[in-house]
Task: inverse folding
């Protein structure tokens, strides 16, 4: 019955060892704060046996993956209330937080495009483009760290990044609070979102509110979630075959947990070099943050949730075709060449990861008045 | 009783004569296709007498202005159906119709910011800025022509402009349909929106769908509309005083009809030169379109609907303060210096023009796939 052959088993152990190193790296935290299974501990247990029935497949999948909960999870340090979420939503959609008043969080993390923007690199300040693909905001709350290189420990910290990044929203740090204070409609919203604070309008509170709103952007109820919860008919035969391959080939070694990703860093190119198009040599990923050469080209394993919505793929946004992305991953991460049929089946399984997209009403934003500073030219 | 004094009467007649010229100008159409009162015909009737009661004020206002209807009006040549509006909404919010895939119609005509963007000039392709303030999309369907200079006869024609304008969305004309065709999710939407057409995906149909959606972006039920419909308590005492001044001073000579504007062209600077900040000499407005020097510095009279939401003001976006804009208008258009109290009252009245803002759910857009062309760098 055991179909995790010796080669696969060795690979799993080897991956496990690498992950342990990463989990202990400076700035690292436990790989899976949301309570999901840690593949670094589980990968060398004999859990990976070929399932013969859908019920067995469900049990096997549950060892590694979890459904998205129906309710937004809490964020440490943020007291989520409807008022805080409302404020966060307004800030998330407000282009006046950027230097040019033309780019909001939603510009690159667009709720109508899978929470991302379908561009290799997003266009920021004056059309300049960053060097990494915008990750989806959907389910980002379940990632163990934020940004491809994990340089933000949570959504609160993350929210402050693009605001001041010179090729993104490009606001001088002071501009953000000045701008918010100059839009009189925001002050009462901050007061309600942060009751009891004497000086509630601050960049820190803006970040908390944005994070609190983002935590609501989850996509539960995907066919795969229904399957995990026991509905054996929620996946097609092709999707079940794809899930079996996803488990057996070893994809789930890294793409595990609630997000099928977002629980660890992993090197891009474990078995072979993906080449400079997929892996531009100048972007060292996690190593660029820690200065630890052992972590060069390690990136946060991205979520596979809603993956069909968020082409192009990889941190380099260099692969527009999901099937090719699957084949490349198997090749360079797992040392396996998949047949076209296997690629099709895994891709079919990935299609089962699209959940209910949040239904968001465009917020009416506080209006600019005579005292509001104009945009930078 | 007659309080339209000789000076005002002469002014009204003189304005009326000018408007008649404009109404007959090349490319002009009847000044008020929506059936509202034509001030060019009415201004020299003795309608403008000081109202002594709210009921009289209502009757007087009704001679010149109309409430926004509760339902979206029809557009010539567009068969509005829920499917067409749904398609139009998706296209309106889709940044991939721009060369950089980062600017949609909604970027500059943002539903959360009064249907505009609170910027003097909008940031377009690579942050370049156009030379005129983005007019609100709200109630634009009631304007007799589109753009500040009337170069589009209706919303269908207008929708094609920014898509290909090199400093706005900057798409080569062919890009728009190529892009739409390359997003497979759009084809069935076009087929449903244009039933019976063998080749429904076209730029022309995209423009029709966008226009059909925009026609739904109306803001009925403002306090002023309630007042016009007979609710004498819908306006405050200050707003009633402001409305009386608005009528008596002559503002309504041009700001009339459903939109309190949008029924005619008018010269900016009838009585005196507004100066180069408000009226940059290089922008000749309607004259730039027709080549007729008599129309230099004529612009479409903008709507005053939701005006407190849409700072900064004038085609040049050069006045962030609504009160100063009111004072400047009285000065240069009507030759009158208003007292601060009069400015406050007229501004209070303008505050009664904010109607119900459309509640729009962010549309889920057709997804990009391996064959969808990437953005221009």
Result:
């Amino acid at each position: 019955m055991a179909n995790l052959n010796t080669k696969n088993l060795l690979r799993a152990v080897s991956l496990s060892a690498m992950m342990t190193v990463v989990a202990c790296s400076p700035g690292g935290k436990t790989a899976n704060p949301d309570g999901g299974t840690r593949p670094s501990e589980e990968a060398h247990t004999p859990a990976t046996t070929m399932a013969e029935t859908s019920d067995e497949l469900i049990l096997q999948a549950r060892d590694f993956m979890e459904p998205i909960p129906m309710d937004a999870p809490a964020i440490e340090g943020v007291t989520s209330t409807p008022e805080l979420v409302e404020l966060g939503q307004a800030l998330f959609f407000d282009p006046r937080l950027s230097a040019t008043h033309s780019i909001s969080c939603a510009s690159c993390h667009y709720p109508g495009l899978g929470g991302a923007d379908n561009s290799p690199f997003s266009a920021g300040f004056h059309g300049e483009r960053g060097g990494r693909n915008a990750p989806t905001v959907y389910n980002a709350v379940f990632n163990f760290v934020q940004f491809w290189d994990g340089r933000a420990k949570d959504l609160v910290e993350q929210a402050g990044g693009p605001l001041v990044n010179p090729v993104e929203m490009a606001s001088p740090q002071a501009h953000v609070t000045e701008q918010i204070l100059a839009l009189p409609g925001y002050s009462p919203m901050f007061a309600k979102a942060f009751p009891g604070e004497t000086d509630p309008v601050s960049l820190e509170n803006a970040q908390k509110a944005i994070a609190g709103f983002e935590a609501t952007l989850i996509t539960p109820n995907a066919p795969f979630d229904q399957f995990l919860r026991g509905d054996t008919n929620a996946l097609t035969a092709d999707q079940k075959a794809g899930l079996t391959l996803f488990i057996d080939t070893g994809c789930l070694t890294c793409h595990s947990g609630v997000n099928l990703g977002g629980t660890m860093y992993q090197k891009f190119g474990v078995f072979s070099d993906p080449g400079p198009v997929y892996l531009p040599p100048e972007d060292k990923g996690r190593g660029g943050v820690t200065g630890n050469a052992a972590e060069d080209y390690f990136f946060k394993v991205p979520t596979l949730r809603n993956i069909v919505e968020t082409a192009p793929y990889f941190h380099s946004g260099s692969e527009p075709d999901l099937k090719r992305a699957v084949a490349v991953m198997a090749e360079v991460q797992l040392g396996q060449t998949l047949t076209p049929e296997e690629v099709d089946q895994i891709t079919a399984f990935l299609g089962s990861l699209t959940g209910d997209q949040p239904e968001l009403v465009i917020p009416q934003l506080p209006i600019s008045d005579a005292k509001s500073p104009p945009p930078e030219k």
About this structure: The first strand of chain B starts at residue 265 and ends at 267. The two ends of chain B are 67 Å apart (CA to CA). Residues 164 and 198 of chain B are 26 Å apart (CA to CA). Chain B touches chain A through 49 residues (CB under 8 Å).
